[in-house]
């Protein structure tokens, strides 16, 4: 085992390593069902009746606006989403899942949760809750740092 894996003080290293390992496992599964990972990040967002703007999609999926725009265009081209003019601001487009997009969303999200369940089954509920609380605090601190 390398020193980095033993060093609990190197939290950024472990967060990135865990994230990359999860994305690798998820990407491998998504490729088997012909679904790009970028589509997953859009599909996982909770879509309400009013839809979301591309800017909201970018923010909630941790993508730049230009990358989110490309992903949305590609998803529209393959029939997973539609874009309609915003009734409050005709210059903006609101994004909605198509029936095919809703069907795929359900299956894709189930697959992702199956991966999470499989790999976290050895972690106690208390440890999972503590980890989530710590990660949320770190994220808030980073967002505050980035906003300053």
Which features characterize this protein?
148 residues, mainly alpha, Arc Repressor Mutant, subunit A, 7 helices, 66% helix
Describe how the helices and strands are arranged.
Blueprint: H1 3-6, H2 11-32, H3 37-43, E1 52-53, H4 54-60, H5 65-77, E2 81-85, E3 93-97, H6 99-120, H7 125-147
Helix pairs in contact: 2-6, 4-5
Any idea how many domains? Answer: 1
Q: Element order, helices and strands?
A: HHHEHHEEHH
CATH-level-2 architecture: Orthogonal Bundle
Residue windows where pLDDT falls under 50 for at least 5 positions = none
Label the structural class.
Answer: mainly alpha
What is the CATH domain class?
Mainly Alpha
Please report the number of helical segments: 7
Strand percent estimate? 5-15%
For CATH, the homologous superfamily is named as Winged helix-like DNA-binding domain superfamily/Winged helix DNA-binding domain
- Report, as a whole number of angstroms, the end-to-end distance: 38 Å
Main pleated sheet: 3 strands, antiparallel
Tell me, briefly, the overall form.
Answer: globular
Mean pLDDT: 87
**Count of DSSP strands:** 3
Oligomeric assembly? single chain
- Topology-level CATH name: Arc Repressor Mutant, subunit A
């Amino acid at each position: 085992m390398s020193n980095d894996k033993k060093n609990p003080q190197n939290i950024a290293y472990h967060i990135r390593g865990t994230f990359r390992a999860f994305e690798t496992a998820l990407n491998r599964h998504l490729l088997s069902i012909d679904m790009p990972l970028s589509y997953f990040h859009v599909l996982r967002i909770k879509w309400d009746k009013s839809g979301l703007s591309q800017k909201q999609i970018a923010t909630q999926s941790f993508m730049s606006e230009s990358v989110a725009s490309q992903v949305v265009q590609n998803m529209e081209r393959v029939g997973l989403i539609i874009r309609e003019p915003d009734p409050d601001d005709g210059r903006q487009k609101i994004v909605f899942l198509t029936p095919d997009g809703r069907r795929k969303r359900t299956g894709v999200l189930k697959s992702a949760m199956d991966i999470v369940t499989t790999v976290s089954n050895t972690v106690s509920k208390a440890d999972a809750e503590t980890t989530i609380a710590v990660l949320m605090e770190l994220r808030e601190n980073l967002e505050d740092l980035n906003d300053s």
